[in-house]
């Protein structure tokens, strides 16, 4: 394990003002994103869409890394430049999603466990050759009104995340560890806090048991936030306070960065909540940043609609979201900036 390389890649991804573009939608997920804008999910449309994102001018000021899906890592720009090289050439670090998705956990109805460990060592070696310097694995934890998640589902997912992270570091690839507590459902912010706390405690206990180097990884958690159907809504300041309090309790200071997922929040809410954390806690032990999928891309898809004539508008929308999240990294964003 090359400790210096792991540390420097992890730190570069979350350098000042920077975060991550999560563009690693699997084919079923990108189809769900394309359907509402009437774009067919063909290999060429997926390639063109990612090309529009990756060639947007100026994003390298705010985007330190991009997470790719297997197919995208093997694709190239119109000019024949492999996407991984195109991104590296702009100073953006290419990464790869390596999990194989969340499947039903046997004997634990309503719970899921993420698969993909078999053969992972060989896949990581190939991804490294193709230019990936970091990887991502997402565990999915649902909350219901009763017994989901089970204590065992939390442990099983934490264990898989730690095995994945150890394999990554063995291959000199920085692991992004993503334990996502979903915001689907009617649970309140306190229940999200309890489950997120249990998950993080279990994840760091397993990472420690597996010998994972905290300095050479990034954590991608959910914010502590009420479920989408919860009647009690919360302000950005309440989400920020609950999230940072929880993270301060469970995430070691040696981890260089916490890169939140957006999880179904609107683009504006995701930016505002991140901003509130950075405005409130001026000196957290880790960088507080973003690794947004939907919150960076939803306005881009709406502007693009699969039409070449809309590309400039789509890139403007993307550039704006990157810039505003860059400001949120510093705690100097305000909602008023949305209308400029
Ligand atoms: C971009 O979406 C990612 C891939 O999801 P699937 O494997 O289900 O296709 C997803 O892991 C994403 O990186 C995170 O959930 C963060 O994205 P959001 O949209 O929640 O910010």
From TrEMBL:
Belongs to the class I fructose-bisphosphate aldolase family. The lineage of its organism: Bacteria, Pseudomonadati, Pseudomonadota, Betaproteobacteria, Nitrosomonadales. Transmembrane segments: none annotated. Its EC number is 4.1.2.13. GO terms for biological process: glycolytic process. InterPro entries: Aldolase_I_AS, Aldolase_TIM, FBA_I. This is Fructose-bisphosphate aldolase. One of its GO terms (molecular function) is fructose-bisphosphate aldolase activity. Keywords: Glycolysis, Lyase. It is an enzyme of class 4 (lyase).
């Amino acid at each position: 394990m090359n400790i210096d390389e792991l540390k420097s890649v992890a730190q570069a991804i979350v350098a000042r003002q920077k975060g991550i573009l999560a563009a690693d939608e699997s084919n079923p997920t990108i189809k769900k994103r394309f359907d509402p804008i009437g774009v067919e999910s063909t290999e060429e449309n997926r390639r063109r869409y990612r090309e529009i994102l990756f060639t947007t001018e100026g994003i390298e000021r705010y985007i330190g890394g991009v997470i790719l899906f297997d197919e995208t890592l093997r694709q190239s720009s119109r000019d024949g430049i492999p996407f991984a090289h195109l991104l590296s050439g702009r100073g953006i670090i290419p990464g790869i999603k390596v999990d194989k998705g969340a499947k039903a956990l046997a004997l634990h109805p309503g719970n899921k466990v993420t698969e993909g460990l078999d053969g992972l060592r060989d896949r990581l070696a190939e991804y490294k050759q193709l230019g990936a310097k970091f990887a991502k694995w997402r565990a999915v934890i649902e909350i219901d009104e009763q017994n989901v998640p089970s204590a065992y589902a939390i442990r099983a997912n934490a264990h898989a995340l730690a095995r994945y992270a150890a394999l990554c570091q063995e291959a000199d690839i920085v692991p992004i560890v993503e334990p996502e507590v979903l915001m689907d459902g009617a649970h309140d912010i306190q229940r999200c806090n309890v489950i997120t706390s249990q998950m993080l405690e279990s994840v760091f206990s397993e990472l420690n048991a597996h010998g994972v180097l905290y300095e050479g990884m990034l954590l991608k958690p959910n914010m502590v936030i009420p479920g989408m159907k919860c009647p009690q809504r919360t302000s950005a300041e309440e989400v920020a306070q609950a999230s940072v309090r929880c993270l301060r309790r469970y995430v070691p200071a040696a981890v260089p960065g916490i890169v939140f997922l957006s999880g179904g929040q609107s683009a504006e809410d995701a930016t505002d909540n991140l901003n509130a954390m950075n405005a409130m806690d001026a000196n957290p032990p880790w960088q507080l940043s973003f690794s947004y999928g939907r919150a960076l891309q939803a306005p881009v898809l709406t502007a693009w609609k699969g039409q070449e004539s809309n590309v400039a508008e789509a890139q403007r929308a993307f550039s704006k979201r990157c810039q505003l999240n860059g400001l949120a990294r510093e705690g100097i964003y305000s909602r008023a900036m949305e209308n400029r």
